[in-house]
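User: Fold both of these, please.

Assistant: Here is the first one.
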Amino acid sequence: MDLTKLKDPFKEHDIEWRVQSSGSGQDGKCWCMVLCYVTNRAIMDRLDEVCGIANWKNEFKQAPDGGVLCGISIKCLDEWVTKWDGAENTNVESVKGGLSSAMKRAGVQWNIGRYLYKLDATFGIVVDNGSHFSKTKDGKKFKWNPPALPKWALPDPRPKGIFEEKMQTLDLITTIKGLTVFRESLINFIWDSEESKNLREHIKEKQKLLTEEKNGTC
Protein backbone atom coordinates (compact mmCIF):
# COMPACT_ATOMS: atom_id res chain seq x y z
CA MET A 1 0.00 0.00 0.00
CA ASP A 2 1.59 3.25 -1.17
CA LEU A 3 -0.21 6.05 0.69
CA THR A 4 1.77 8.70 -1.18
CA LYS A 5 -0.55 8.02 -4.15
CA LEU A 6 -3.45 9.52 -2.19
CA LYS A 7 -2.14 12.98 -3.08
CA ASP A 8 -2.11 12.44 -6.86
CA PRO A 9 -4.13 15.02 -8.87
CA PHE A 10 -7.62 14.08 -10.03
CA LYS A 11 -9.10 14.21 -13.51
CA GLU A 12 -11.27 17.21 -14.37
CA HIS A 13 -14.51 15.23 -14.19
CA ASP A 14 -13.70 14.43 -10.52
CA ILE A 15 -13.58 18.14 -9.66
CA GLU A 16 -16.62 20.21 -8.69
CA TRP A 17 -16.89 23.99 -8.55
CA ARG A 18 -18.93 26.43 -6.49
CA VAL A 19 -19.40 30.18 -6.58
CA GLN A 20 -17.66 31.99 -3.73
CA SER A 21 -18.92 35.45 -4.66
CA SER A 22 -20.76 37.05 -7.57
CA GLY A 23 -22.23 40.34 -8.75
CA SER A 24 -22.79 42.49 -11.79
CA GLY A 25 -20.83 45.42 -13.17
CA GLN A 26 -22.01 48.83 -14.34
CA ASP A 27 -22.51 47.34 -17.79
CA GLY A 28 -25.00 44.87 -16.30
CA LYS A 29 -22.83 41.82 -17.03
CA CYS A 30 -22.53 39.28 -14.24
CA TRP A 31 -19.27 37.98 -12.84
CA CYS A 32 -18.38 35.24 -10.34
CA MET A 33 -15.40 34.07 -8.33
CA VAL A 34 -15.28 30.27 -8.01
CA LEU A 35 -13.48 27.61 -5.96
CA CYS A 36 -12.98 23.92 -6.75
CA TYR A 37 -13.22 20.75 -4.68
CA VAL A 38 -12.81 17.05 -5.34
CA THR A 39 -16.07 15.10 -5.39
CA ASN A 40 -16.91 12.75 -2.54
CA ARG A 41 -17.26 9.81 -4.93
CA ALA A 42 -13.77 10.46 -6.30
CA ILE A 43 -12.38 10.35 -2.74
CA MET A 44 -13.97 6.95 -2.16
CA ASP A 45 -12.63 5.66 -5.49
CA ARG A 46 -9.14 6.89 -4.61
CA LEU A 47 -9.26 5.12 -1.23
CA ASP A 48 -10.44 1.90 -2.93
CA GLU A 49 -7.65 2.15 -5.49
CA VAL A 50 -4.79 2.92 -3.11
CA CYS A 51 -5.84 1.08 0.07
CA GLY A 52 -8.17 -1.65 -1.16
CA ILE A 53 -11.87 -1.77 -0.38
CA ALA A 54 -11.34 -3.69 2.88
CA ASN A 55 -8.55 -1.51 4.24
CA TRP A 56 -10.36 1.78 4.80
CA LYS A 57 -13.60 2.93 6.45
CA ASN A 58 -15.39 6.08 7.50
CA GLU A 59 -17.55 7.04 10.46
CA PHE A 60 -19.55 10.11 11.41
CA LYS A 61 -20.26 11.87 14.69
CA GLN A 62 -22.21 14.95 15.64
CA ALA A 63 -19.96 17.97 16.06
CA PRO A 64 -20.02 19.77 19.45
CA ASP A 65 -21.46 23.00 18.00
CA GLY A 66 -23.66 21.41 15.35
CA GLY A 67 -22.72 20.02 11.99
CA VAL A 68 -20.93 16.72 11.63
CA LEU A 69 -17.50 15.14 12.12
CA CYS A 70 -16.08 12.53 9.76
CA GLY A 71 -13.24 10.14 10.48
CA ILE A 72 -11.47 8.29 7.69
CA SER A 73 -9.57 5.23 8.93
CA ILE A 74 -6.91 3.35 6.97
CA LYS A 75 -5.50 0.01 8.06
CA CYS A 76 -1.73 0.44 8.25
CA LEU A 77 -0.19 -2.99 8.85
CA ASP A 78 -2.38 -4.33 11.72
CA GLU A 79 -3.44 -0.95 13.11
CA TRP A 80 -6.28 1.38 12.11
CA VAL A 81 -5.21 5.02 11.84
CA THR A 82 -8.01 7.60 11.84
CA LYS A 83 -7.97 11.26 10.86
CA TRP A 84 -10.94 13.52 11.64
CA ASP A 85 -12.38 16.76 10.33
CA GLY A 86 -15.80 18.34 10.32
CA ALA A 87 -18.18 20.67 8.52
CA GLU A 88 -21.39 22.53 9.11
CA ASN A 89 -24.63 21.37 7.55
CA THR A 90 -25.26 22.98 4.18
CA ASN A 91 -28.23 25.08 3.08
CA VAL A 92 -29.24 22.53 0.43
CA GLU A 93 -29.92 18.97 1.68
CA SER A 94 -28.35 20.08 4.94
CA VAL A 95 -27.60 16.67 6.52
CA LYS A 96 -26.38 14.99 3.32
CA GLY A 97 -24.38 18.08 2.41
CA GLY A 98 -22.80 18.16 5.87
CA LEU A 99 -21.78 14.50 5.67
CA SER A 100 -20.27 15.02 2.23
CA SER A 101 -18.39 18.17 3.22
CA ALA A 102 -17.04 16.55 6.39
CA MET A 103 -15.70 13.58 4.46
CA LYS A 104 -14.04 15.85 1.90
CA ARG A 105 -12.27 17.69 4.71
CA ALA A 106 -11.27 14.42 6.36
CA GLY A 107 -9.87 13.34 3.00
CA VAL A 108 -7.71 16.45 2.98
CA GLN A 109 -6.24 15.28 6.30
CA TRP A 110 -5.00 12.25 4.35
CA ASN A 111 -3.65 14.58 1.62
CA ILE A 112 -6.47 13.71 -0.80
CA GLY A 113 -7.13 16.79 -2.94
CA ARG A 114 -5.04 19.02 -0.67
CA TYR A 115 -3.20 20.40 -3.69
CA LEU A 116 -6.42 22.22 -4.68
CA TYR A 117 -5.90 24.58 -1.75
CA LYS A 118 -2.97 26.03 -3.69
CA LEU A 119 -5.48 27.37 -6.24
CA ASP A 120 -6.78 30.82 -5.41
CA ALA A 121 -10.34 31.78 -6.14
CA THR A 122 -10.57 32.64 -9.81
CA PHE A 123 -13.15 34.02 -12.18
CA GLY A 124 -15.69 31.67 -13.70
CA ILE A 125 -16.48 32.14 -17.39
CA VAL A 126 -19.93 33.73 -17.61
CA VAL A 127 -21.63 32.71 -20.87
CA ASP A 128 -25.23 32.26 -22.00
CA ASN A 129 -24.82 28.53 -22.60
CA GLY A 130 -22.76 27.80 -19.47
CA SER A 131 -22.93 24.40 -17.79
CA HIS A 132 -23.43 25.87 -14.29
CA PHE A 133 -26.26 28.07 -13.02
CA SER A 134 -26.14 30.67 -10.27
CA LYS A 135 -27.51 34.08 -9.29
CA THR A 136 -26.25 37.22 -7.64
CA LYS A 137 -27.40 38.49 -4.24
CA ASP A 138 -29.92 40.73 -5.92
CA GLY A 139 -31.40 37.72 -7.72
CA LYS A 140 -29.91 38.21 -11.17
CA LYS A 141 -29.52 34.80 -12.82
CA PHE A 142 -26.57 33.80 -14.97
CA LYS A 143 -24.77 30.75 -16.36
CA TRP A 144 -21.06 30.07 -16.19
CA ASN A 145 -18.35 27.54 -17.04
CA PRO A 146 -15.43 26.54 -14.79
CA PRO A 147 -11.99 27.90 -15.66
CA ALA A 148 -9.27 25.57 -16.95
CA LEU A 149 -7.04 23.97 -14.34
CA PRO A 150 -3.26 24.46 -14.60
CA LYS A 151 -1.21 21.51 -15.81
CA TRP A 152 0.30 20.85 -12.38
CA ALA A 153 -3.23 20.33 -11.00
CA LEU A 154 -4.02 17.57 -13.51
CA PRO A 155 -2.76 13.97 -13.68
CA ASP A 156 0.02 12.98 -16.07
CA PRO A 157 -1.72 12.07 -19.36
CA ARG A 158 0.71 9.21 -19.93
CA PRO A 159 -0.49 5.78 -18.72
CA LYS A 160 0.87 4.95 -15.30
CA GLY A 161 4.16 3.11 -15.42
CA ILE A 162 4.72 3.40 -19.18
CA PHE A 163 7.56 5.91 -18.81
CA GLU A 164 9.31 3.87 -16.14
CA GLU A 165 8.79 0.68 -18.16
CA LYS A 166 10.31 2.19 -21.31
CA MET A 167 13.26 3.57 -19.32
CA GLN A 168 13.91 0.14 -17.80
CA THR A 169 13.77 -1.43 -21.27
CA LEU A 170 16.18 1.20 -22.60
CA ASP A 171 18.54 0.62 -19.69
CA LEU A 172 18.41 -3.13 -20.32
CA ILE A 173 19.16 -2.68 -24.04
CA THR A 174 22.01 -0.33 -23.21
CA THR A 175 23.39 -2.81 -20.69
CA ILE A 176 23.20 -5.71 -23.16
CA LYS A 177 24.88 -3.66 -25.87
CA GLY A 178 27.52 -2.54 -23.41
CA LEU A 179 28.23 -6.12 -22.31
CA THR A 180 28.42 -7.25 -25.94
CA VAL A 181 30.93 -4.54 -26.79
CA PHE A 182 32.91 -5.36 -23.64
CA ARG A 183 32.89 -9.08 -24.51
CA GLU A 184 34.11 -8.41 -28.06
CA SER A 185 36.81 -6.07 -26.79
CA LEU A 186 37.92 -8.63 -24.23
CA ILE A 187 38.08 -11.40 -26.86
CA ASN A 188 40.10 -9.18 -29.20
CA PHE A 189 42.44 -8.23 -26.38
CA ILE A 190 43.03 -11.84 -25.41
CA TRP A 191 43.43 -12.96 -29.05
CA ASP A 192 46.01 -10.27 -29.76
CA SER A 193 48.00 -10.80 -26.56
CA GLU A 194 51.50 -12.32 -26.70
CA GLU A 195 50.46 -15.24 -24.48
CA SER A 196 47.60 -16.03 -26.83
CA LYS A 197 49.89 -15.95 -29.86
CA ASN A 198 52.43 -18.25 -28.17
CA LEU A 199 49.66 -20.63 -27.15
CA ARG A 200 48.30 -20.76 -30.69
CA GLU A 201 51.80 -21.44 -32.05
CA HIS A 202 52.27 -24.20 -29.49
CA ILE A 203 48.96 -25.80 -30.45
CA LYS A 204 49.90 -25.67 -34.14
CA GLU A 205 53.21 -27.41 -33.41
CA LYS A 206 51.48 -30.13 -31.42
CA GLN A 207 48.91 -30.63 -34.19
CA LYS A 208 51.73 -30.86 -36.74
CA LEU A 209 53.63 -33.48 -34.70
CA LEU A 210 50.46 -35.53 -34.20
CA THR A 211 49.78 -35.43 -37.92
CA GLU A 212 53.32 -36.54 -38.75
CA GLU A 213 53.19 -39.37 -36.22
CA LYS A 214 49.90 -40.53 -37.68
CA ASN A 215 51.30 -40.51 -41.19
CA GLY A 216 54.52 -42.24 -40.03
CA THR A 217 56.78 -39.48 -41.22
CA CYS A 218 58.66 -39.17 -37.96
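And the second sequence with its predicted structure:
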Amino acid sequence: MKQHGKSPRECPMPKAGELVRPRHGRGRIRYGSGPGTHAGGTGRPPSELRQRCRGSFGERIRIAEQIADGPRFKPADRLRAIDLLGRYGLGSMTEVSADQVRDCLRLTIAAIRELLPAEQAENLIGRLREVWE
Protein backbone atom coordinates (compact mmCIF):
# COMPACT_ATOMS: atom_id res chain seq x y z
CA MET A 1 0.00 0.00 0.00
CA LYS A 2 1.55 3.29 -1.07
CA GLN A 3 0.69 6.47 0.83
CA HIS A 4 1.90 9.99 0.18
CA GLY A 5 4.58 8.81 -2.27
CA LYS A 6 6.20 6.47 0.26
CA SER A 7 6.76 2.75 -0.06
CA PRO A 8 4.87 0.33 2.21
CA ARG A 9 8.01 -0.17 4.36
CA GLU A 10 8.20 3.55 5.05
CA CYS A 11 4.43 3.71 5.80
CA PRO A 12 3.39 0.62 7.81
CA MET A 13 -0.30 -0.07 8.36
CA PRO A 14 -1.58 1.91 11.34
CA LYS A 15 -3.06 0.15 14.33
CA ALA A 16 -6.79 0.42 15.09
CA GLY A 17 -7.55 3.67 16.88
CA GLU A 18 -4.27 5.33 15.88
CA LEU A 19 -4.45 8.89 14.54
CA VAL A 20 -3.61 9.08 10.83
CA ARG A 21 -3.57 11.80 8.20
CA PRO A 22 -6.63 11.51 5.86
CA ARG A 23 -6.20 11.45 2.08
CA HIS A 24 -7.03 15.15 1.71
CA GLY A 25 -4.05 15.80 4.02
CA ARG A 26 -5.69 18.05 6.63
CA GLY A 27 -5.99 17.18 10.29
CA ARG A 28 -6.02 13.69 11.77
CA ILE A 29 -8.61 10.93 12.01
CA ARG A 30 -8.67 7.65 13.89
CA TYR A 31 -7.89 4.58 11.82
CA GLY A 32 -10.49 1.80 12.10
CA SER A 33 -12.17 1.24 15.43
CA GLY A 34 -10.28 0.22 18.52
CA PRO A 35 -11.44 -2.27 21.11
CA GLY A 36 -14.36 -0.92 23.13
CA THR A 37 -14.97 1.97 20.74
CA HIS A 38 -17.90 2.56 18.47
CA ALA A 39 -17.71 0.03 15.65
CA GLY A 40 -20.17 1.87 13.43
CA GLY A 41 -23.73 1.07 12.56
CA THR A 42 -25.22 -1.44 10.20
CA GLY A 43 -25.76 1.16 7.51
CA ARG A 44 -28.92 1.95 5.65
CA PRO A 45 -31.42 -0.96 5.62
CA PRO A 46 -31.55 -2.78 2.26
CA SER A 47 -35.30 -2.17 1.96
CA GLU A 48 -34.75 1.58 2.26
CA LEU A 49 -32.02 1.41 -0.40
CA ARG A 50 -34.27 -0.55 -2.76
CA GLN A 51 -37.10 1.93 -2.23
CA ARG A 52 -34.78 4.83 -2.97
CA CYS A 53 -33.40 3.10 -6.08
CA ARG A 54 -36.94 2.42 -7.33
CA GLY A 55 -37.80 6.09 -6.91
CA SER A 56 -34.62 7.16 -8.65
CA PHE A 57 -35.20 4.67 -11.46
CA GLY A 58 -38.82 5.79 -11.80
CA GLU A 59 -37.70 9.37 -12.29
CA ARG A 60 -35.33 8.31 -15.07
CA ILE A 61 -37.57 5.98 -17.05
CA ARG A 62 -38.37 8.83 -19.43
CA ILE A 63 -34.67 8.93 -20.40
CA ALA A 64 -34.76 5.25 -21.37
CA GLU A 65 -37.99 5.89 -23.30
CA GLN A 66 -36.39 8.79 -25.16
CA ILE A 67 -33.40 6.64 -26.10
CA ALA A 68 -35.64 3.74 -27.19
CA ASP A 69 -37.78 6.03 -29.36
CA GLY A 70 -35.09 8.45 -30.53
CA PRO A 71 -33.88 7.93 -34.10
CA ARG A 72 -30.72 9.95 -33.37
CA PHE A 73 -29.45 7.18 -31.06
CA LYS A 74 -27.50 4.15 -32.31
CA PRO A 75 -29.59 0.99 -32.80
CA ALA A 76 -27.54 -0.81 -30.12
CA ASP A 77 -28.32 1.92 -27.57
CA ARG A 78 -32.00 1.84 -28.50
CA LEU A 79 -32.13 -1.95 -28.10
CA ARG A 80 -30.44 -1.75 -24.67
CA ALA A 81 -32.98 0.86 -23.57
CA ILE A 82 -35.87 -1.32 -24.80
CA ASP A 83 -34.37 -4.35 -23.03
CA LEU A 84 -34.00 -2.35 -19.80
CA LEU A 85 -37.61 -1.15 -19.96
CA GLY A 86 -38.82 -4.69 -20.64
CA ARG A 87 -36.80 -6.31 -17.87
CA TYR A 88 -37.97 -3.86 -15.24
CA GLY A 89 -41.49 -3.45 -16.59
CA LEU A 90 -42.31 -7.11 -17.15
CA GLY A 91 -39.92 -8.71 -14.68
CA SER A 92 -38.08 -11.93 -15.29
CA MET A 93 -40.23 -14.77 -16.51
CA THR A 94 -39.91 -18.07 -14.67
CA GLU A 95 -41.80 -20.99 -16.10
CA VAL A 96 -43.40 -23.42 -13.67
CA SER A 97 -44.90 -26.65 -14.88
CA ALA A 98 -48.33 -27.90 -13.83
CA ASP A 99 -46.60 -30.92 -12.26
CA GLN A 100 -44.48 -28.63 -10.06
CA VAL A 101 -47.61 -26.79 -8.90
CA ARG A 102 -49.39 -30.10 -8.14
CA ASP A 103 -46.38 -31.36 -6.16
CA CYS A 104 -46.29 -28.16 -4.09
CA LEU A 105 -50.04 -28.41 -3.43
CA ARG A 106 -49.70 -32.03 -2.31
CA LEU A 107 -46.90 -31.06 0.10
CA THR A 108 -48.93 -28.09 1.36
CA ILE A 109 -51.98 -30.26 2.04
CA ALA A 110 -49.81 -32.85 3.81
CA ALA A 111 -48.31 -30.11 6.02
CA ILE A 112 -51.77 -28.75 6.85
CA ARG A 113 -53.00 -32.21 7.85
CA GLU A 114 -49.88 -32.80 9.93
CA LEU A 115 -49.95 -29.49 11.79
CA LEU A 116 -53.66 -28.84 12.38
CA PRO A 117 -56.39 -30.81 14.14
CA ALA A 118 -58.30 -32.99 11.65
CA GLU A 119 -61.51 -30.93 11.55
CA GLN A 120 -59.66 -27.63 11.17
CA ALA A 121 -57.35 -29.10 8.50
CA GLU A 122 -60.29 -30.39 6.43
CA ASN A 123 -62.10 -27.04 6.67
CA LEU A 124 -59.00 -25.21 5.46
CA ILE A 125 -58.34 -27.71 2.65
CA GLY A 126 -61.98 -27.43 1.55
CA ARG A 127 -61.67 -23.65 1.43
CA LEU A 128 -58.44 -23.90 -0.58
CA ARG A 129 -60.15 -26.24 -3.08
CA GLU A 130 -62.71 -23.48 -3.71
CA VAL A 131 -59.87 -21.05 -4.42
CA TRP A 132 -58.04 -23.40 -6.80
CA GLU A 133 -61.11 -24.58 -8.77
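Strands lie at 19-20, 29-30.
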